[in-house]
Design a protein that fits this description.
By secondary structure, the chain is mainly α. Helix content is 78%, strand content 0%. The chain is built from three helices and no strands. The longest helix is centred in the C-terminal third of the chain and has 25 residues. It is elongated and about 45 Å long.
Length: 69
């Protein structure tokens, strides 16, 4: 479960970096990484959507910040 959380957060970090590059420069880094293959592009975006949902679920279900006050 911990590895899954790390992978989901890594996906979201990669998506954030690619989104930041696109926002600041106009260069679509994610499309460049996927070699202009629209199917790979959309699959990665779908995986990142599921990663975001799983990350939100894990924050609600496991309460990692419960001891911090």
């Amino acid at each position: 479960m911990k590895l899954t959380c790390y992978m989901c957060v890594a996906n979201l970090v990669i998506l954030g970096i690619c989104g930041g590059v696109y926002a600041l420069t106009g260069f679509n880094l994610l499309m460049f990484i996927s070699l202009n293959n629209i199917l790979c592009y959309r699959v990665f975006l779908a995986i990142c959507g599921v990663s975001a949902l799983f990350t939100a679920y894990s924050l609600i279900a496991f309460k990692p910040f419960k001891g911090l006050k």
